[in-house]
Each structure stands twice: as C-alpha cells, then as structure tokens.
Amino acid sequence: MSAQRQRVELTRVLESASAQGDLGHFQEAQRIIDVAESSMRNTKYKTKMHSACCDELTDARERFQSRREWESGGRAELRDATQMHKMQRVTNICSSSKSAKSSKSMYCSEVQGLWIQRSVAPPSVAMAPAMVTPPTSVAMPPISVLTPVPSAASSDDDAF
Fold it and tell me: How much is the pTM?
C-alpha cells in the first residue's frame, strides 16, 4: 500500500469512527479502528507514513474509551487529525498531553518548524539576534510626491 493510499485510508477511517463517536457508539468506533489497524499491520510496505498511521490509529482508539474521554478533547483531537491528513497540512505541532504524534511533523517542513519554534518560544529566545532576520527597508518617495502641492494657477476665486 503506498503512502498516499495509507493516508487516504486513514482519513476515511478517522471520519467513520468520528461519526460513530458523535452518535455515542464508542464500541463501533473502536471496531472500525481495530479493523483498519489490522489491515495496516498486514501491509508489506512499511513506510514512514505507515508508522504514523499506526500511531494515529492507536491514539484514536484511546479517544473512544468513554463519553468523558470523547467530550474532554477526544473529538477535537480526532477532528484535527482528520483535517491534517485530508489536507496534508498541520495546524499545530503541539501534541495533546496524552500522546506525541509523529504524523504532525510529517506535514511540517524544517523552515515551518523553525517559524513555529519562534512563535512559541519565550520573547528572550524568539528575539535572539541569531534567529531574527533583519527587516528589508522600503524606500519611501519624497514627501512632495505624497502631498499635493497647490499649483500657481489655482486662486481663491476658484474655491466653492
């Protein structure tokens, strides 16, 4: 199974399980996850995506342990993972306190990772001279270009 196919299949499974969770059918959601995980384990191509998919399915199963787990962040975490895999874009790289996801780093380039680190770092670290790119200067036109100068032809007689 190719990495893209695994990603698409994972997205479909997460959507199906999430729908069952919304209905309160947590055992059915776990069954959907179990079937997908079994299928994923039996694939002969072990890619980086394969490992991330297995981790994602394990995390998703934990979200369906109870209504309380689902309501206290499980739904949001699963929706975020579904959207991330569907769009191949990560919305954040902060993992929940319950799991560390390797799949989040898959959609984040090295440069994006540096920008994210800057955005969450304390001000003293984020503003370190080695990390800050100097702003580009923009040449401003002379003030006379910006401010209209009254012409000599205008007179007070032309005023309304």
Answer: 0.60
In our burial notation (b when 16+ CB lie closer than 10 A, e otherwise), range 118-151 reads eeeeeeeeeeeeeeeeeeeeeeeeeeeeeeeeee
Which amino acid makes up residue 137? S
Alpha carbons 63 and 65: distance in angstroms, whole number:
6
Contact 58, 10 (CB under 8 A): no
Taking the alpha carbons of 14, 17, 19, 23 in that order, is the dihedral positive or negative? negative
- Residue at 4: amino acid letter: Q
Quote the CA–CA distance of 129 and 122 in Å, as a whole number.
Answer: 14
Neighbours of 32 (CB within 10 A): 25
Going residue by residue through the chain (160 aa), what tens digit of pLDDT does each one get? 587 888 889 889 999 999 999 999 999 999 999 999 998 888 877 777 788 888 889 888 988 988 999 999 888 888 888 888 787 666 655 555 454 455 666 666 677 777 767 777 665 554 444 444 545 555 555 555 455 556 655 555 555 4
